[in-house]
Amino acid sequence: MAHQTPLHAWHTTQGAKMAEFGGYDMPLWYASAKQEHLSVLTAAGLFDTSHMAVVGVQGPDALALLQACFTKDLDACIGRHNGPIASGRCVYGAFLSDGGEVIDDAIVFKTADRRFLVVVNAGMGGTVSRHLEMHAEGLDVRVEDRTDGVGKIDLQGPLAGKILGRLVDGGPSAMAGMVYFSFKGHFDPDAPGYADLMLKDGTPVLLSRTGYTGEFGFEIFMQPDRVLPVWESVLSEGAPLGVLPCGLAARDSLRAGAGLPLSHQDIGAWPFIHHPWEFALPFTPDRSGFSKSFLGDKALLEAADAPWTAAYVGEDLRKVNAADGAQVLLPDGRIIGSVLTCATDMGIGRVGSRIYSIASGDAPEGFSPRGLCCGFVKTDRPLESGQTLTLRNGRRTIQAGVVGDIRPDRTARRPIQTML
Amino acid sequence: MKEISELQLPEDVRYAEDHEWAKSQGDVLRVGISDYAQDQLGDIVFVELPQAGDRLKKGDEFGTVESVKAVSELFMPVSGEITAVNGALEDAPELVNTAPYSDGWMIDVKPDDPSELDALMDRDAYLDMLKGSEQ
Questions:
Q1: A 211-250 residues with CB < 8 A to B
Q2: In this complex, is the C-beta atom of B131 within 8 Å of any C-beta atom belonging to chain A?
Q3: Domain range spanning residue A221?
Q4: Phi and psi angles of residue A217, each rounded to the nearest 5 degrees, phi first
Q5: Three-state SS at A88
Q6: Distance between CA atoms of residues A379 and A318, nearest Å
Q7: CA of B90: which chain A residue's CA is closest?
Q8: In B, which residues are within 8 Å of A320 by CB distance?
Q9: CB-CB under 8 Å, B71 with A396
Q10: Whether residue A33 is found in the same domain as residue A63
Q11: Which residues pair with A311 in a beta bridge?
């Protein structure tokens, strides 16, 4: 029997199309995955993400354990000058096996000195905690799977700050200065920072300026019993502005268009290198090695023949089913790999040789896109941007081109003062 | 998602196991997909149809229907010649969602054997099949 989030009854009452994901019975969409996707680009969308797992890592050697296991160098990861992670900041990276293969990707939050929260994918709390414990021998650190004690919803889209500003105690100024990949507050009464950020209804939250859509927005962590009332108050505040509840289908199409990987699909049981997310690796400036030693590092440096991963965009919105093994071919017919993700970003379209988003300020008048197929391919060789590919599964064959980026004019990194 | 009791399942069409419907219109059969099928697929964003004049056998793939989530094949409920396709779906594939039995129709077929229509399920048999698959 699949697990349920605190919002499960709400989803089924709304008539959501449900499916199992990561061991949880989750909404794929409510009325329309397309409208949900578009709402995140033009207003904001609200996602139930309580299926995601949270692992606490604390103690005098918490940093040492994470430095030994996490791909990002926590002593050199913040800002232009690669400073050490500070309390209130979070970073993206991955946990690897000794062979350099991905166990899971994660965002590590530094909540205080010697205290970290590690947010991993649905169903991965146990796996990642056991992995960390296995490498904690001789270290003074406590690792704890806290998944069942944490609830989370994500508000994503250009209006997310305006809506939350009305619900947060202290108003928009309580969120001022929050840079991308920073957070405020805590939901745990025993943690430093608890009640530093409260909603007006008295809910203590950990509010993080992160997400999985490529758009401006927040992940909101709280105690599980607060999830339903907060969900409902965000929706009632946001509905007049066009906010929609969104399911996993929109989450997948938005993240694909934003060029973000899905763990265990776009990254997985092969070396975590040769991909568009190498910012998650602690390369030295000359890329000859890494700035720290971590589990899997040697395997990565020796993995010259490891497969290569690249983003692509199709000619139009037509997809191939990637789940059952679609092939990647060069124009001369040589098969060079397989399709990892194939989704339709419903908010983008081509005008001449250029791709616009419905959120592009300079889109031609009357621009009304039908969407473009996009995703990632894994191949036996590096591919240059602009390379033409054929993607094939059964009868369906589509043309695609390798790209450095997919959906233009994303809002995730906009300065917060322009978004409140 | 609709409850089975909320589905539109008209009496005047016949249903195939793959959720296509067929309805007699003079000497051709009009074919589309059922309310259940469109509801399961979600937003339909593209429909690929054959050419008028194509001859296909019962069970052959006659096209694909593409939702935000996946690409699904469409299968001929009877053998015959395609006499017309619904060109409106090219610009408005969402008609399959909003009007699966009327404006969202897909193809007209001149059946090789008109009695093949009778071999398809009536409303009650199709409803029984849907109830069985929900359990």
A1: 249-250
A2: no
A3: 8-50+150-255
A4: 165, -170
A5: coil
A6: 21
A7: A370
A8: 71
A9: yes
A10: no
A11: A376, A403
